[in-house]
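Notes from hallway chat w/ T.B., transcribed later so I don't forget. T.B. wanted the structure written out for a chain they're using in a teaching module, and asked if we could keep both sequence and structure tokens in one place. Agreed to drop them here.
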Amino acid sequence: KQWYQRRVAITAGIEEVVNAICSAKLKMQDMNCAIHLCSLLHRRYSDFSLLLLKTLQHALNNLHKDDKVSRVRIELRLLGQMLVLGIITDQKEGFTLLHNTLCKIVENDKDKLEFLPAMVSFVKHCGVDILGVQSTKNRQLIEQHNITVPAIKILSKDKQQIFADLLKEYSSAVILSLVRLHNKLMKCLKHNKKTLLMKGEISAEKIELSEKLAAQHSKLLMNATTLAELLDIIIPDLPNLQALDDDEMDCNSPANANSDVSVVGMSCDKF
């Protein structure tokens, strides 16, 4: 009886620890410490792995658009690295949860790209082991020096390809949005240039709009470039102001909006 009561007390205590880890307002620089703590707890308490998986399932299965990107970014990385390190021992349930979460993001976030930073972070920390994809820089170094890089084999190549295709589909949506935003910005800048030549001044509203578009463009370009480099894909060249005429800068033109962008079709029903 005493042993049972002690067991119940320990399980309750571990559950509180798991909830505290998953609900803490962690920053990316805190993640290495959090992962090390999870590793120590997993070695000491057999219930930790299952409780951690259940907590992450509850959080990620109830993913909503109003969820903070920072929280999803932490949970995605935590889930991915717990699977890679073997801390989540139920690999089937763990990878199913990861696959379903990525599917939800890919299906529902192609327009607003609110979870783009979370996806970039996930690929950065888990891309090699889960997607089986080397970054452009690493691939070039491997080819240049003709070396073989050992990898943790936690998934078959077929399943790695499923995850890689999901991220590449999302990346295609990111590139499409970047092309559209770039064309919109170029059109705005060209209009401002013409207005300045004809009238000698630009309205405050137009200046504010161009600055807003430029800020959005800079942020999206940075994330898109990072994601493309991590996935080893190429972003199409974005034309400069002088290279575009008025028709080419129409971001609503289907030919322009979809040029050089291919979207990979994926079924998210099963993993």
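Follow-up for T.B.: The chain has ten helices and no strands. Might be a good example for the class.
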